[in-house]
Amino acid sequence: MTPTHLLDTQDWSVADVTALFNTADVMAQVMERTIKKVPALQGFTVGTLFFEPSTRTRLSFERAARAQSADVVSFAAGSSSLSKGESLKDTLRTVDAMQADLYVVRHAVSGVPHQLARWTDARIVNAGDGRRAHPTQALLDAYTFQKNFSGFDGFAGKKLAIVGDVLHSRVARSNAELWTKLGAQVTLCGPRTLLPPELEQPNVTLTTNIREAAEGAHAVMALRLQGERMQAGLLPSLAEYRVRFGVTEQVMAHAHPDALVMHPGPINRDVEISGALADSEGSVIEAQVANGVSVRMAVLYMLLVGRK
């Protein structure tokens, strides 16, 4: 049975993920039609609760819901009663009165989606909580790899290298969790100050050497430096970071010949990744965005309809 929520991928089995990817294939076909809409979620209401700024994820979820004919109720923290001192629980009760069937939640504090799941009967999808998890990003990244890697024959024996600000990245944590569940190896790379030692575990290795991280990798993912979350002293200088940890054509020369270039966005060109590489033939960055809609359509469908 499909899990009730998508808070992270810990409770999702490999069979669940495989079923989700198969459903995403069907949803991708819908998005290729002249009329990109089906009545799959007609009569359902999806609430988007974003307590933190977002462009790609919020628009992707809203597009995914409307493409399946769901009603969408949007909530923005800045224009809500939260700014007047209302508690998170009371805010949820107010939105709950609109009888949403599923909430897509993003919050700067880790664990908030888990707490909301205890306060409502609606399904909860975690769209990013603090630095802890971003499960739909990991799902769309793995799905994109599956669809684009030449001669894909499963995740076993594959290597994903994630380079950059790992410390503040919920994307890195969720990808490490999901890809190792699917059988891949994950290498996390960055400055020692941005590389939490507790993330090292079976099938997840840490290194400060970008060429070592890229060696034989089937996909290399660059991460943005999250300056808005950083304290002073974590980096010697941006110029030094660019030289030591920027993903470039020279770095990719150490990877598998068919390696894919990935980035969860937003991109700072010629900082964490060279602009030419981001636009190269091996780049699937635009495919990640497009696949995000199909994968999120599948998530909404499986939680609302598939489980019945």
Walkthrough of the structure:
This protein has 308 residues and is an alpha/beta fold. It has two domains: 14-134 and 289-306, Rossmann fold; 137-284, Rossmann fold (3-Layer(aba) Sandwich). 37% of the residues lie in helices and 15% in strands. The chain has eleven helices and nine strands. Strands 7-6-5-8-9 form a five-stranded parallel β-sheet. Strand 5 (159-163), helix 6 (170-181) and strand 6 (185-189) form a beta-alpha-beta unit. Helix 1 (14-30) crosses helix 11 and helix 2 (56-66) packs across helix 11. The longest helix has 22 residues, at 285-306. The radius of gyration is 19 Å and the shape is globular. 44% of the residues are buried.
Structure summarized in a few sentences:
This protein has 308 residues and is an alpha/beta fold. It is built from eleven helices and nine strands. Helix 2 links the parallel strand 1 (45-50) and strand 2.
Which key phrases capture this entry?
11 helices, four-stranded parallel beta sheet, Rossmann fold, alpha/beta, 2 domains, 308 residues
Q: Layout of helices and strands, plus pairs?
A:
Layout: H1 14-30, E1 45-50, H2 56-66, E2 71-76, H3 88-96, E3 102-107, H4 112-119, E4 123-129, H5 135-148, E5 159-163, H6 170-181, E6 185-189, E7 204-207, H7 210-214, E8 219-222, H8 238-245, H9 249-252, E9 260-262, H10 275-278, H11 285-306
Parallel strand pairs: 1-2, 1-3, 3-4, 5-6, 5-8, 6-7, 8-9
Helix pairs in contact: 1-11, 2-11, 5-6, 5-11
